[in-house]
Specification:
9-stranded antiparallel beta sheet; 3-stranded mixed beta sheet; 7 helices; globular; alpha+beta; 21% strand
Length: 346
């Protein structure tokens, strides 16, 4: 059999311009047999759970009692990854082996953002005005962190679904504000600078224009925002949302642009839910420039969705190449997955 012709367009590698690395695609392997049980991805829940530490009026492990909140509720995480009260590291053990090994205090702020008092809804089930209120609340958080002397970078992210390790199904996201730069944004900024030197243009604008020109991977578009599966997607249903006007962070976005971002979010996540007729799991990361006072006007904030599923209940595992060699190998082609979402009515 001539495998070259049989696998044309399904077996190739593509350059990821923001990570500056190859992604390998081998969609001809997507139907290979699996010998493990397909996981369920939806669980029934009630609007209030007396044992949930995020529901209104409930006791948290810290001893605090949640207020009877009716809108967005934000509080400092009771189990913080980083904190302003993290233990100090003594100078005599802060460096070893002539600076080869270093340690420092895990300084920062960790917060939880509850979207809604109801335990049984997801962000995709809320209307656009309510999603926009959540994004405006996040914008206010960003203003706070920009003015904080110890914070340099902020990651806002949502882990949705048990399959990605969520410990509580109550609809929420988290904020990690740190005194160092997150790797994803650092790598993107490095790629941004290289691209500007080589092409004399902005890499984010070039990616958006390339996707709008190809149109094969565009999921949704409005006057203020665009949603697409990128040419270089690593996960099967990976999708990116960009505000069309460049902003380094949420801070400078207008209410109209926030509304457009909320509408884009809702369209994408509802298409996700409709695709497998279930509450679709994903990891969403909001990529924003650092808030350390530097010049980042060339950075273009965006949302990156990394769903773990390739098929209903079938997870993409980060195995030998991804974990062992830090090189992503995908079993699907971006254009095929984009077409599925394009054809999904909501």
């Amino acid at each position: 059999m001539d495998t070259t012709k049989a696998h044309t367009g399904k077996w190739e590698k593509r350059w990821h311009p923001l990570r500056r690395e190859w992604v390998v695609y081998s969609a001809h392997r997507n139907n290979r047999p699996w010998n493990f049980e397909v996981k369920t991805i939806h669980k029934e829940a009630s609007s209030y759970d007396p044992g949930c530490y995020l529901c209104p009026g409930n006791l948290r492990v810290s001893g605090a009692v949640n207020p009877d909140y009716q809108d967005v509720f934000i509080f400092d995480n009771d189990h913080p990854v980083v904190g302003l009260d993290a233990p100090a590291i003594a100078e005599e053990i802060s460096s070893a082996h002539e600076g080869l090994y270093k340690r420092a205090s895990a300084t920062g702020i960790s917060r939880v953002v509850c979207y809604d008092p109801r335990h049984d809804v997801s962000l995709s089930e809320l209307d656009v005005p309510r999603i926009a209120r959540i994004f405006r609340a996040l914008r206010e958080e960003m203003v706070f962190f920009r003015n904080h002397p110890k914070i340099k970078s902020v990651l806002i992210f949502e882990n949705k679904g048990e399959i990605v390790g969520v410990s509580n199904p109550h609809p929420h996201c988290q904020i990690y504000a740190t005194d160092f730069h997150f790797n994803m944004v650092r790598r993107e900024m490095e790629a941004m600078h290289v691209h500007k030197q080589q092409k004399e243009s902005n890499i984010f604008s070039d990616i958006i224009q390339a996707e709008l020109k190809d149109r094969k991977r565009i999921i949704w578009e409005s006057e203020t925002a665009v949603v697409f599966i990128p040419f270089f997607a690593r996960f099967a249903y990976e999708a990116w949302i960009f505000p069309k006007k460049r902003h380094a962070t949420l801070i400078t976005m207008t209410d109209e642009e926030i509304n457009g971002l909320a509408e884009a979010f809702r369209v994408l996540t509802r298409k996700y839910d409709g695709l497998f007729r279930s509450s679709f799991p994903y990891i969403m990361a909001m990529a924003q420039a650092p808030v350390d006072g530097g010049y980042y006007e060339d950075y273009h904030m965006h949302l990156v969705f990394s769903p773990p599923l390739r098929q209903p209940g079938l997870q993409k595992f980060l195995a030998g190449p991804e974990t062992g060699a830090d090189t992503f190998m995908a079993d699907t082609i971006p254009e095929d997955k984009a077409l599925e979402l394009q054809n999904m009515d909501i």
